[in-house]
Design goal:
This protein folds into 3 domains: 123 residues, 3-Layer(aba) Sandwich (Rossmann fold); 57 residues, Histone, subunit A (Orthogonal Bundle); 65 residues, Crystal structure of tRNA isopentenylpyrophosphate transferase (bh2366) domain (Helix Hairpins, Orthogonal Bundle). It is built from 12 helices and 5 strands. A 5-stranded parallel β-sheet has the order 3-2-4-1-5, sandwiched between helices. Helix 3 crosses helix 4, helix 5 crosses helix 6 and helix 11 runs antiparallel to helix 12. The radius of gyration is 19 Å and the shape is globular. The chain starts with a strand and ends with a helix.
């Protein structure tokens, strides 16, 4: 039996991962799994830069617009579902593509997710109450003091990520980062990772143009439709949270767009 290969395409936003994946999938007559955690959601299209309908029609795609923003869907759920789908696809393909997206979700498929301790019941509610009373900044500072390593790499503007780390820290008394990267799971396939790169100024120019195109395509209207769901983790996505701030009159539209461009460069 031929060895099965998962061809993983990663790289910064706007680098051309989707285009390359479609070319390769067409060449190998294969299929694509998306590991972009924000493209999972049916209600979010413009701000998540899902492939166009023509692109989706050109080769089979999986894990795009599969669930509602109101459904809880963790990285563990994705690992389980992606491995199940790969098991099906490798019965008919020697090569399947995985496109990131979200590094955590790519790693979950390729290496497996890390094992975390059971969290004390009620702790998440306590942290959410603290965030409402003291603000996210106070919890960010706690994370900085208790786990500076994770503080340096986490998306600090994503409350879910900050609260998740503090749950583990308060439960165990150990840094969240101590539980990361403890071991690799064995997979019944070989993973070949292709990392795309370009000069920083090229990437930044592409990001700026991409955000401008999103705005011209109606991103603000998309956010307006979803504003009642801003408490959901899905709406903490770059491009949505900045425009939600604008809709709450916390910033100007130009400032919000500038923040989207700046925050997108971090991914």
């Amino acid at each position: 039996m031929a060895q099965k290969t998962l061809l993983v395409i990663v790289g910064p936003t706007g680098i051309g991962k989707t285009s390359l994946a479609i070319q390769l999938a067409s060449h190998f007559k294969s299929e694509i799994l998306s590991a972009d955690s924000r493209q999972f959601y049916k209600e979010m299209s413009i701000g998540t830069a899902v492939p166009t309908q023509n692109e989706l029609d050109s080769v089979p795609h999986h894990f795009i617009h599969q669930i509602s923003i109101q459904k809880d869907y963790s990285v563990g759920d994705f690992e389980r579902d992606a491995l199940k789908k790969l098991n099906e696809l490798f019965k008919v393909h020697d090569i399947v593509l995985l496109v990131g997206g979200s590094g955590l979700y790519v790693d979950a498929v390729v290496y497996g997710i890390d094992s975390f301790p059971k969290i004390r019941p009620g702790l998440r509610s306590e942290l959410q109450n603290e965030m409402e009373e003291r603000g996210l900044n106070a919890l960010q500072e706690e994370l900085k003091l208790t786990d500076p390593a994770y503080y340096e790499k986490v998306d600090l503007k994503n409350p879910h990520r900050v609260l998740r780390a503090l749950e583990v820290i308060r439960t165990t008394g150990k840094p969240f980062s101590d539980f990361l990267g403890k071991g690799k799971a064995k997979r019944p396939f070989h993973s070949l990772i292709l990392g795309l790169q370009a000069p920083r100024e090229v990437v930044y120019d592409r990001i700026n143009a991409r955000v401008d195109k999103m705005m011209a395509s109606g991103l603000l209207d998309e956010v307006k439709i979803l504003k009642d769901f801003e408490h959901l983790n899905a709406l903490q996505t770059v491009g949505y949270r900045e425009l939600l701030s604008y809709l709450k009159e916390e910033t100007t539209l130009d400032e919000a767009i500038s923040e989207i461009k700046k925050n997108t460069r971090r991914f």
